[in-house]
Amino acid sequence: MRRLPWRVAELVEVRHETTTARTLVFEVPGWPGHLAGQHVDVRLTAPDGYSTQRSYSVAAPEQGERVELTVELVRDGEVSPYLTEILEIGDQVEIRGPVGGWFVWRPERVAPVLLVAGGSGMVPLMAMIRARREAGSSAPFRLIYSVREPDQRFYLDELASPDPGLDVAYIFTRKTPDGWARPPGRIMPPDLAGASTDIDSFVCGPTGFVEAAADQLIALGHAAERIRTERFGPTGG
């Protein structure tokens, strides 16, 4: 199998999502395109030649030679502190990809979709939501987004904007907004219950979250082969 080449990527736009996360838009000459749900490898190289890399999901569908990533700060990490606190417009990194072909949504799919996100697992699912919107797809999307506290939600304004066919629900595990009906707590079967199990499901987040959500979906009658999962664990950031 042909190895994917590293490409120089220049930062051209920055958007702050939370106090610890920001979206980085790179211009990547020669970029071959990607599907919603895929990820890339980002490599940093120091002047002394030391290099390190991490994988990040792409946050938006194909946009020519642009690649959009949303990165959450890991305080003791090697890569995320540089990407979230130091990298400036005009700076360059190296990007390799796209990677992955299983955890993807294609606009030609018309089946209803359930998206279940835990924390920064929202990133590839946002790419799917944006791809649906850009394609004018009529596939109904339901998003269940679990975060610890309200101020940790990514893409808050965009998800609050009217988007016919997209239903958004939040779960807060530590602290809720004032007057929120559901008490703080982890995702539970009632959160996932719906009118139909004849859907495609995408679940992304920390390993424990993904395993719990997938098990609950199966217990609710969802077919295992229609549940696609993407998980992440401690990587050093």
From TrEMBL:
Q: What is the required cofactor set for this protein?
A: FAD
Is Iron set as a keyword in this record?
Answer: yes
Which protein is depicted? Oxidoreductase
Gene Ontology molecular function, alphabetical: 2 iron, 2 sulfur cluster binding; oxidoreductase activity
Protein origin, superkingdom: Bacteria
| Residue intervals passing through the bilayer | none
The record ties this protein, via Pfam families, to: FAD_binding_6 (PF00970), NAD_binding_1 (PF00175)
Q: PROSITE patterns, from UniProt?
A: FAD_FR (PS51384)
Residue ranges of domain FAD-binding FR-type in the record? 4-105
Q: Which UniProt keywords apply?
A: 2Fe-2S, Iron, Iron-sulfur, Metal-binding
